[in-house]
Amino acid sequence: MTVRFSVTVRRVREDGSEVPLDGELAAALAGPAEQFAGLAAWTADEAGYLDHGERERVIGQEGRELQRRLLQATFDVDAAREERAAGVTSAAGIRHGIVEEGHGRGVTSVFGPVRVTRKAYRNRREPNLYPADARWILPDDPYSLGMRALAAFHLAAGGFGQAQEVIEARTGVTVGRAQLTGLAEDLAAWTDDFYAGRSRDAEEEEQPDTDVIMMQGDGKGIAMRPEHRKGGGTDPAHPGIKKMAEIVAVADFTPAVREPEDIAAPPARRQAHPGPKARDKWVSASVTESIEDMIASAFDEADRRDPQRVRQRVFLVDGNKQQITAIEAQAAGRGLKVPVLIDYIHVSGYLGKAAAALHPGDPAAAGQWADGQLLRVLHGRAKAVAATLKSVAAKARSSPRTSHPGLTDMDRAVTYLENNHQHMKYDKALAKGWPIATGMIEGACRFVIEDRFGITGARWSPDGAETILKLRAVVVNGDLHDYMNYYKERYRDEHHLARYDEDTIERLNLAA
After folding, report:
1. Distance (Å, rounded) from C-alpha 184 to C-alpha 164?
2. How far apart are CA 85 and CA 344, in angstroms?
3. What b-and-e string marks burial along 134-143, b requiring 16 or more CB atoms within 10 Å of the CB?
4. What is the DSSP letter of 50?
5. DSSP string computed for 372-403
6. What is the pLDDT averaged over residues 53-80?
């Protein structure tokens, strides 16, 4: 038995009576109606011979074609109803009085390729004007706004090859590597302006004045192409293969008071006295901007969250002197007191290596000794711990019966503690409920940089890496939807409305 299915689309009047569609609307909807009728007939007949996986595949393919035809129908209806406008004038004041029908162009959408037709307003002295393109906010290249958002998300998530595969599976459209690269550059161009020009979380409830703004900074290396390495990559002994990417993060948190013993305690006690939890995280990364510029961007984000500057701010770093100098300069320039804390986990690493050097071959003794020194550090006695390490190292070296070739690790720990003890006031930080570890920025480094730029064999140019870093930060911050709205309006202003004089924009309502 063969099942046939027909679809009739009719217009319903206010009194409930039905009438046939007018010509252009009937013609535009004929394609989607035919596609839906065929899919419905398949559902009632042929689908019964297929397993569920095969049904999913067919519905996915045919359903996407139905969506493509519906999108095509919207453009066809608009084209049929586009009215001729008078007095279309360019931004240069040149009137485009010659009007030609039927100018078509292709658009690659998330449902597949469609073709749009619209009126062209011509003048031999300038390129054609297409008011319909401005209303639709059509990009100059074939790729729709939906395709751009899809490309941004998947380029941020994985490599170019992976993005190509996912986009093709999702849309049925194959996008070349060069086209993806161009899309990425275009999409990333306004991310800095997006963040600089908005007040983050402006629509949300204001944070309590007692909540603290946490800022963190770090750096990770990104492997460069040979031509972008130091020395041109010509010296095999010193290839300079990586370029440092600077990353900053900002978050809000409610203070959670703890004691030094909570940090050094067994897991059960640490769980009973949890530390502060970061929320509303914001991340920014760059391989071309300086440390000073990135630190300034973190302060800018804090100002957007707290424009009156009434909330306490804390900056956590790993001990990088250039970072600390930049933080202190930014705080002074803005009239702020911003405590700088060295990540406690970094301190723990230095003391762990020092303990291993002091107790070679005895990890239990090394661990016990390190725990005791760490607890002293947590009580704000980092300078005293440095003196202890220096004294112990000197005694070990003076003993003729012992050999400690690894004591250089103790020397490094001493230097680190002596140089940074003023940023290790953990006792005061814990009493105020502040975090003392840069877990947020470490996680951001892994997700924003390592997971994406650590792909085996991947090599980058500085500009290419910068583009992906910007897109990845937008996605990580959960701002892709808001950014694409900003991008759309910015694109219309700069690529469409900039071609017309103000009177034409207002009369044709192109900015609506």
Report:
1. 13
2. 68
3. bbbbbbeebb
4. S
5. HHHHHHHTT-HHHHHHHHHHHHHHHHH-TT--
6. 93
